[in-house]
Write a structure and sequence with these properties.
The chain is an alpha+beta fold. It contains 19 helices and 6 strands. The strands form 2 sheets. It has a 4-stranded mixed sheet. Strands 1-2 form a two-stranded antiparallel ribbon.
């Protein structure tokens, strides 16, 4: 019997690799892969993507077998660093309510980089990605809300999730895999101080470094180096030292047949910080129901859970990087344009008089009762007063794209085209085919392809 929560977590990874992968899990994994490619393609042409590609090739010089979004072929570690950062640039990569992190960028990125370097059976790739999600999400939930207020859990729990993904991809088992997670945990970091200091442009380094640390931890364990066994629950482990206040018991499943954590993720409907989705969803619903536009609005008040503003509390953006973290800007953009698209956060019209005037009529306040429902719910209420005297209210506790309100297949493909408008039909079809491949168990023994064209890579 396991004696530590970490032992139970490792036992869970063994069980997942030993049991058949259900059709539902394969379908959900295909959706996660499509989300990851959507995120990567949405950001690959940004100037920040150039900086990430340069950084990765500086840290790990030389060409190699692994494709990079919008770049060339690099060594696996360089490709993984660059791809993780690029896929996080637009804030459209998947999320999770309880864990408060972005799991796909740390679970998928290292596995595909390793699969490009050495042929990996499709089942190994499936198991590795599922393991990355499982560890990152369980650990993120165990660390809880107090931790997430101070640390970016994508960088902390995400480092350990990346080690799990890379370790399973490399074939690590038992104590060796446990060592990989323990080594990664000692490298967990990601301070939210960057938000307080206006350094939003560096946020993409959090998943980039998490993947770098996770992959390096897996290789270190493979070489025989030991890692902390009680990396989460120990007296000087992550939970004690990084402000953990969630239940450590969540590291172990309640039952052997519990669904994989992959099924509990959120695919993002808006190109911005996920803390701000429920007010956007609520306002969108009122606009659609009552035909409301910017000219109709005399006043708009948003009530939201306080944690949202700890991360996304920008009053008015000074740069494009701040736009996805400013609720007033996003609400004003939705009212003026009827949507919030990639172009609105890439080239935000920050000096637009119409947006600024509307933002002056938007009030944002918090509710401690809403906070008590966080993180399992993300409550927000929108109260609208129109110039003609009509008043409307909408409350939203869950987000479009949450497991309770998921996207279907056609909507996900449309999302790919909306968030990556430069993508042509041929390349979109290649991406879809690459993602859908994991749904076919007959291909599990065959090497999983990592074709450079689906990354927009120049060979």
């Amino acid at each position: 019997m396991p004696t530590l929560p970490e032992d139970a977590l490792l036992q869970r990874l063994v069980q997942l690799q030993q049991r058949p992968v259900s059709a539902a899990t394969r379908e959900r994994l295909a959706q996660a892969l499509l989300d990851w490619f959507t995120a990567g393609w949405s950001g690959l042409a940004l100037p920040a993507a150039d900086r990430l590609r340069t950084l990765a090739s500086t840290c790990v010089p030389g060409t190699g077998p692994a494709p990079v979004f919008g770049g060339g072929l690099c060594q696996p570690l360089a490709a993984a660093m660059a791809n993780a950062g690029i896929a996080h640039l637009r804030e459209v990569d998947d999320a999770h309510r309880a864990a408060m992190l972005h799991p796909g960028v740390v679970a998928i990125t290292p596995v595909l980089a390793l699969a490009a370097a050495q042929p990996l059976p499709q089942r190994r790739v499936v198991d590795a990605i599922v393991a990355g999600y499982e560890v990152a999400l369980r650990l993120g939930e165990a660390l809880g809300t107090r931790h997430a207020a101070a640390f970016h859990a994508t960088a902390t729990a995400g480092s350990v999730g990346a080690a799990a993904a890379a370790g399973v991809a490399l074939g690590l088992q038992g104590h060796t895999l446990h060592h990989a997670l323990g080594i990664a945990a000692t490298q967990s970091a990601g301070l939210w101080q960057l938000v307080d200091d206006g350094a939003h442009e560096a946020k993409s380094l959090h998943p980039a470094f998490a993947v770098r640390n996770g992959m390096t931890a897996a290789w270190a364990a493979q070489s025989g180096l030991p890692g902390a066994r009680a990396f989460a629950s120990g007296a000087r482990g992550l939970h004690a030292l990084l402000g953990g206040d969630g239940p450590l018991a969540v590291l172990a499943p309640a039952a052997d047949d519990e669904p994989e954590r992959l099924h509990t993720t959120t695919i993002k409907a808006w190109p911005c910080c996920a803390q701000l989705f429920t007010p956007l969803d609520a306002l969108r619903a009122l606009m659609l129901e009552h035909g409301i536009g910017a000219a109709d609005v005399a006043a708009l008040q948003v009530t939201i859970f306080p944690h949202a503003l700890k991360i996304a509390g920008v009053h008015w953006p000074a740069t494009a990087a701040e736009a996805p973290f400013c609720l007033r800007f996003l609400l004003a953009t939705l009212l003026v344009h009827g949507r919030v698209g990639i172009e609105h956060t890439e080239r935000p019209a920050l000096a637009d008089p119409a947006l600024q005037a509307l933002a002056q009529r938007i009030t944002v306040c918090t509710d401690d009762g809403f906070q008590r429902l966080f993180p399992h719910r993300r409550p927000a209420r929108v109260d609208l007063v129109l110039h003609d005297g009509r008043q409307f209210t909408a409350r939203r506790d869950l987000r479009r794209g949450d497991p309770e309100d998921p996207f279907d297949g056609p909507a996900l493909l449309q999302r790919l085209r909306d968030f990556a408008p430069a993508l042509d039909d041929h390349r979109a079809a290649l991406i879809e085919g690459t993602c859908r491949r994991v749904t076919d168990p007959a291909l599990d023994a065959q090497p999983a392809p990592v074709p450079a064209p689906v990354f927009g890579t120049v060979e």
